Structure prediction request, 816 residues.
Amino acid sequence: MRQSELFTKTRRENPQDEVAKNAQLLVRAGFIHKELAGVYSYLPLGLKTLNKIIGIIREEMLALGGQEVFLTSLQEPEKWQKSGRWSDEVVDIWFKTKLGNETELGLANTHEEALASLMKEQISSYKDLPKYVFQFQTKFRNEKRAKSGLLRTREFIMKDLYSFSKTEEELANFYDHAAQAYEKIFKRVGLGEVTYKTFASGGSFSQFSHEFQTLCEAGEDLIYVDEGKGVAVNKEVLTDEVLSQLNLDKDNLKEKKAIEVGNIFKLGTKYSEALGLNYKNESGEVLPVVMGSYGIGPGRLLGTMAEVLSDDKGLVWPEAVSPFQVHLISLGQSEAVKAEADKIYADLVKKGEEVLYDDRDLAAGEKFADADLIGLPKRIVVSEKTLASGKLEVKDRASGETIYIDHV
Amino acid sequence: MRQSELFTKTRRENPQDEVAKNAQLLVRAGFIHKELAGVYSYLPLGLKTLNKIIGIIREEMLALGGQEVFLTSLQEPEKWQKSGRWSDEVVDIWFKTKLGNETELGLANTHEEALASLMKEQISSYKDLPKYVFQFQTKFRNEKRAKSGLLRTREFIMKDLYSFSKTEEELANFYDHAAQAYEKIFKRVGLGEVTYKTFASGGSFSQFSHEFQTLCEAGEDLIYVDEGKGVAVNKEVLTDEVLSQLNLDKDNLKEKKAIEVGNIFKLGTKYSEALGLNYKNESGEVLPVVMGSYGIGPGRLLGTMAEVLSDDKGLVWPEAVSPFQVHLISLGQSEAVKAEADKIYADLVKKGEEVLYDDRDLAAGEKFADADLIGLPKRIVVSEKTLASGKLEVKDRASGETIYIDHV
Prediction:
């Protein structure tokens, strides 16, 4: 795409109403727009990045055997009353609204109730199990505080997968596969080395659940990391008993700030019992389905990448999620440079490269500052100098290294 | 995909709480699930179909020069107060909610205000125009009645594009291109022959807006069609003056029921003036940006296709939007049939065909009834009979014609 046609502009100054680095950078680079506190629109560069993250997560969910659906935000109270989660005293982040006839509705902040209820029409026998169902769908959460940019928002797309199994063993087996898929996702988006599978409390059904925590000074969570073993524990389970159970030594744990980028949870039969989601086993016994839930917020992940992978000049996207792979920059307005840059642009596009072509009539310094801020992996410069040399300057955004290659 | 793994099941009986044919068929075939009146979840087959429709619309919007964004549902009152659309007396389909601190918010039913406001940060000069911005995003509309299945819903994904132009001429030029893109979309999804560009009232800025109306007995609108000229008019503009202006003869018009599947509207400077979206022209004058809006509901389009293209046996999907292209059906449980069907499935998938493989242990009649209900374009049957003949039976869902081909 030609940057002269892109409707978003970069900004030099940080927006005054943002304190979080991720929001400052993403707003300045034209990736997102703040609608109100904790509510952000995605602009073309941000949406492309978000969709790449979603694409990676989707691939891994399909590889797990997941089937994709798209549930609704509007929810009637009944199902949530059955599970005990309708009351604002129990769940203090509801957004509620009303139909014209004054019937109260809620905007879903999660979908265990809705999906367990839907699955009652689809599951009756052991032959129908196991099943794995996921979606990318907007969640609404009425957060009291929303000052962390994309790290804690009131409206956000979430990938939530729910597993439906016959037995605890079947759940445990899938749960382990899901954990592996999550590790793969964080690796693929470039956060593998700083993201720890973290033991957290498991609720009434299981001793542990797991969070995936990315080390980051901007994180709201504190975790205790054994770097050698690549494992961490959450504060709520940091007891001598748990440590000995996990074969961890207190002296090897370092307290770190982290962002929760994913979580997986064995729900057991809590929601299936509340909502009557049962199946008949091979002996004809009626038993509650055993459930698990598995969440990742692609927007929070994008915000985390903006926090963790950026430098003082701007964003630094890994290839896998970058909105474009190459930032092609023409310097000066000579016809020869324009013609050569146009040609390289056409050639790269023809090869299937995703190119942002800065064809704007601006000074070199402004173009370089914009390129650093937007943070595409490779920068190619076409100028009188490169024309004369017959070489192209290719700079790697992450390492800062420049190499010279023959004209493409 | 193997149908034995698909988590949705078909139903023989119409759901008791649905009166609209589209909802009856789509629920029975396992494409959608009713959450509450006018609020439907998409199940795997439905979501695949919806995503194909979205893919076609996206291609045409990108071809028009559109840039994709993703705006938010949560909205503060201020912008809408400026345009006069916050009050429930003016707009009677608001869903409203509240932040924890009692600040009232609305759930966007459209996005003129939000986008015009956002564009103030991006547009300042004539050099920034024209720009075309679109999204696929969930709209919330508090409809009083919601008995028409997917044709009128309270929560639905909408493609809304907004154009930002310097002058009325520039708007008119793009508006005509957009109208052509819309005609292309309806053609591509298989509704071209029954969809009419329909003159409707244009509001304060323009004499006409245009609707795209698909002829259908289930439609809520009445239009007056000149079949020969391929044009229609809406009741509200059916006057002698308009007819003579459009060179239409009252005697050639037939009254028809129709579903509004799209609309395009010249907004003029209504929202840009209300929200202060201005640009400087070449002489340095500050002028309001001239806007247009262009909407299609992919879900309503899907519902319309279920109404218009179905028959008494079930759904009939055109290739362009069908969730799978081929329904491969094995009959009987002989090992030879299974092995041959497995092989054909593997071969077709390898070729890149989208195949739903009915490998379930069910009677032929049930499998055929399900295939007719689900409505994939091609049905291939593998049975003892086809094995013996060395031929495969390929049936076209739309025409009902069967041909025999050599084994693939």
